[in-house]
Amino acid sequence: MDHYLEIQLLADPEFPAPILMNALFAKLHRVLVQRENKRIGISFPTATPNHLGQRLRLHGTAAELDGLMAQPWLKGMRDHTEVSAIVNVPGNAQHIRVQRMQAKSSAERLRRRYLHRHPGTTEEEVRNLIPGMVEKKLNLPYLRLKSTSSGQDFALFLQQSQAGQPVAGEFNGYGLSRTATVPWF
């Protein structure tokens, strides 16, 4: 992770920044999965506790980032973005972990899952075992995406947390990792 580039969303009167970030991120996800790239991580340098901001930073080696940007994955987004050059990460950069966070957000889904795994249990028993108040809500910024496998919309909640020392590792098709870190500056 010695290089990075930034993609800045440009102000648009027709599309708010979160809609543009969702579209940009969906395109990034598709190209990362298509290329089977596990060496590019992401961060959101202008994120707030409730919003991911208007800048997406991609981290990797110069060769990995150059190969990614040689693909036409930004087609349709060029009028809405400004892409920086690929540059060296500052030497004094801290490191953070950017990972997906999931909550047990649907009591009904938990009940269906319990019924499936425990045949012979009645719906009333499960309703008593899993009350509606078990639901948890996350107060984190998120992206609204569409699953390529199921076609359903879902929220991808993200947490950027200080990690201290750099940790090498692989990233998933979203540029996220539970263990690997990316530079933060």
From TrEMBL:
Gene3D superfamilies membership: CRISPR-associated endoribonuclease Cas6/Csy4
CDD domains xrefs: Cas6_I-F
GO molecular function terms noted in the UniProt entry: endonuclease activity
GO biological process entries: maintenance of CRISPR repeat elements
One Pfam family linked to the record: Cas_Csy4
Protein name: Uncharacterized protein
